[in-house]
Prior knowledge:
- By secondary structure, the chain is an alpha/beta fold.
- 44% of the residues lie in helices and 6% in strands.
- The protein has eleven helices and four strands, in the order H-H-H-H-E-H-H-E-H-E-H-E-H-H-H.
- It has a four-stranded parallel beta sheet, with helices on both faces.
- Strand 3, helix 8 and strand 4 (191-194) form a beta-alpha-beta unit.
- Helix 3 (30-41) packs across helix 4 and helix 7 packs parallel to helix 8 (173-184).
- The protein is globular and about 70 Å long.
- The two termini are 41 Å apart.
Amino acid sequence: SYAENIKNNVDEITSGQVKFLNPFMAFTNEDTLSSQLIKVFGSSEFGISEAEIRDAVSEGWKELAVVRMEMQKKGEEVLKYMEETGKRGIVLAGRPYHVDPEINHGIPELITSYGIAVLTEDSVSHLHQPERPLIVMDQWMYHSRLYAAANFVKTRDDLDLIQLNSFGCGLDAVTTDQVNDILTRSGKIYTCLKIDEVNNLGAARIRIRSLISAVNSRKEQNFIDRCNLSADDFDKCSGSETASKFTKKQRQHTRSVWINIFIRFFLSDRPSDCIHHNILLTYHLPEFCDLCIFT
C-alpha cells in the first residue's frame, strides 16, 4: 500500500526521527470511526478525551456530506454550462490521490487547454445508477461510483470518459475491463491512462488528442450509436440521410471484426483522419466488408 511505501522509504521515518501512524480507519458510520479514533488517540500519549473525539467526528461527518453535495451541484452546473455553450466535457475518473499534481502530471489542465470541461466521477455519479448485472464483482464504494459515472457518460453525446488508473492500487485493476465494457457497448471510446507508466505529459497528450480527434471524426461522419438498439430498430435510428442502414447480419459481423490498416483509404487521404479506433471504423464500413483485409 501507499502507506507502507511511505513508511519504508522516507528517511525521517526509517531513521526514527518521525513517528509514523497508519491505523485502519473504516468510514462505515460515525460510531465505527469514532471507536477507532478513540483507540488510537484516546491514550495518555495524546491526551484527547472521548467526548472531544466524538464531537469532532460528528462535525466532520456533517462537513463530508456538505462537500459531497457541493461537488454534485458543481457537476450539474458544468453540465448546464456545456449545454448552453455547446462545449464538450470529459469525466476524468480517478482516486482521490489523483488530484495531486505530482501524481496526475497536470492532465486536468492539459484537457482544459483544449477547451474541454473536466468533471470528476463523483460530480456526476449521482445522476445515474450502474446497470446490472456487471461483469465483475462490485463491492467497493469507489468502483460503484465509477461504474455509475460511466453509465451516465453514455447517455450524453457531449461527454466522454478518461480513466486514471494506478496499478499500485491492485483493487482498481478489475475496473478497467468493466468501464471499457460499459462504454464500448454503448458506442463510446474508452481511454485509460496508467499513471504508474507516465512520467511526463508527452504520452498522455497523444492519448488525449487521439480521443478528441476520434470524437470529432465521428461527428463529421454523422456517427450514430446503434449498439443498444435491437435489429428491428436499425432503420429508425438514422438521423442522417448519409447514414447507412445496418442489417442484423452486418451488426453481428462488425461488432467482432478487427480491420487492417489498409482500410484507411476508404475514409480519407489524410493520415490524420485515420484514427485507429476500431469501433469507429467498423461502423462506417459495412458495405466494404468483402473488400477489406481482416486480421
